[in-house]
Amino acid sequence: xxxxxxxxQLLVTASSSQKPSDSVLTSLLAPMxxxxxxxxxxxxxxxxxxxxxxxxxxxxxxxxLGWVAMAPKPGPYVKEMQDAAMFYTNRVLKDYKEKDKMxxxxxxxxxxxxxxxxxYIKQHHTTGLSWSKTVSHILVCSGPVASGGAPSGGAPAPxxxxxxxxxxxxxxxxxxxxxxxxHNALFASINKGADITKGLKHVSDDQKTHKNPTLKVQGGxxxxxPKPFAARPTAAASPARTLPPVLELDGKKxxxxxxxxxxxxxxxxxxxxxxxxxxxxxxxxxQVKGKINSIILDNCKKLGLVFDDVxxxxxxxxxxxxxxxxxxxVPTISINKTDGCHVYxxxxxxxxxxxxxxxxxxxxxxxxxDGEYTEIPVPEQFKTVWDxxxxxTTATEIAG
Length: 400
What we know:
Layout: H1 2-16, H2 22-44, H3 52-61, H4 74-96, H5 101-124, H6 176-190, H7 234-241, E1 246-250, E2 253-257, E3 265-267, E4 275-279, E5 282-292, E6 294-298, E7 301-310, E8 313-317, E9 320-326, E10 332-336, E11 339-344, E12 353-357, E13 360-367, E14 373-377, E15 382-386, E16 391-395
Parallel strand pairs: 2-4, 3-5, 4-6, 5-7, 6-8, 7-9, 8-10, 9-11, 10-12, 11-13
Antiparallel strand pairs: 1-2, 13-14, 15-16
Helix pairs in contact: 1-2, 2-3, 3-4, 4-5, 5-6
């Protein structure tokens, strides 16, 4: 709710004010940026939650609200953030499709929020956040403008103390049309014009940038970059880099976390029901001996993984420059949102299915009769044509 208040307040301010100086705009964006970071931090603190995939979908897509600083293409930016959440929403659908329709409805409702936001942006803010051209005054945004909001100048409310239930109650109506209508009504209400500015305060002439040019040079330019709200301040990022390394068995899960330059990590006492989860391991090598259920590499860089047998799936998510070597058998290897992944198969694992999405620089190495490996790139470019009855997609030839 705090995030929605910050977002709506910014739109209200823009609808009744001329575009402010960079320093003032930075202060307007700061509360929303802070809450977005709290949402993402909340997800990281609840990795064991039964609704972790729900939390991840929200965490990956919530920076879409940063479109207000993404001129001249805010709509495509929202689409990019929506696509980033699809990996996790697809997981929710896979887990609950046959078990609980409430979760399936939540996915549909949540995704529709970003779809409708893109339509709203296209209609009212095509090339960036639209500021008023007729109102001659500048409004000061010092806190959420809503009844029951935070006091002026106060910090946004902290995130809830525990993992939320699946947020299906966002739209209790079973009708998709009524849900869409409610979202459209929200966006339409934002553009009421001058009437919506009641309750905002005016400032004196000495605080108006168009009457006092010196205010425009009090702050530096806004930070540039494709995802200003996704960036973490240096102070906030430091604790993550100093977290102690972890290599332990927690129930049925082997947790391998925060390993830096750790070569020779070995998990040997394994059972079929166990899984391995490697998170934020960089410049390290990990060997998993025996037969295990599944392995997940998440947010790892320059990690080498060697394993014997996996009966389920090996997943590589949000990684960069990783190498995976199969010594035994594995039915499926999934590569998502990863830049640089080399998969070494052996003669017993040549039937493995490799599924990739939103990834680049993927190569599969297969053994020859002489024991050497042949490197084959995984296609990243595809061609789709209509054959008269359906779409047919084929991989294009890779040059060179």
